[in-house]
Amino acid sequence: MAYKKIVKIWDDLVICKSNIDFLTSKTNVVKFPLTKYDKKIIKDLKDTADRIDCAGIAANQIGHNKRIFIGYSDNSLESYKIYINPLIILKYQNSIVPGYKNEIDHYNREDYENHIYEGCLSLPNAEFSFPRYHKIKVQYQTEDGKNCTETLEQFHSQIFQHELDHLDGKTIAHRCIESIKNRKEGTIILVGYKEKSREQLQKKIKTLHNNFQYLKDYFKR
Description:
Elements: E1 10-11, E2 14-15, H1 17-23, H2 36-51, E3 56-58, E4 68-72, E5 80-91, E6 96-97, H3 103-107, E7 126-129, E8 132-133, E9 135-141, E10 147-153, H4 154-167, H5 172-182, E11 187-190, H6 198-219
Antiparallel strand pairs: 1-2, 3-4, 4-5, 5-9, 6-8, 7-11, 9-10
């Protein structure tokens, strides 16, 4: 097994400054035939996805600067497949699902079926809400170099966008910041700390918001 640790922007809400530049850099195109290194990346992605609870993992999330990700193969969420040199070639404008506009509705999952919310292995203990397309047409290559074109919908579409963003050097924090600025919608909430006291949770929430502001300032550079 070649399980790899996830490269994180923060760990337990402590900012990992050394990782930000890497995760916000665009990855390199994969050329065929695949090299031994490319095949190692694919094995690392498969082995890591088998070990952790995830919908997908981009190569740069495990330290490899190549345009490869692993993600669910369809909306059944039962099996993974490898996507190489992925592209979105069409976004269906009438398929946009909005994000929440305030944290209370986000925390309470108000009308949750009609809102987007996402977590990320590289930004643990936080959940972001911002718009996504629920129908896109995509292209990618398989491990044997076959060119594929597919129309993806719902969560499958969301996963593809999430992982492609990673390969382009954009995280869900980027997307949320962009949405708040341009569309006036988008929220971030704390998750995964139910065992903490109210005072501890308030400190974590404050840290989360401070981190988000740090990323806003960082991404302006």
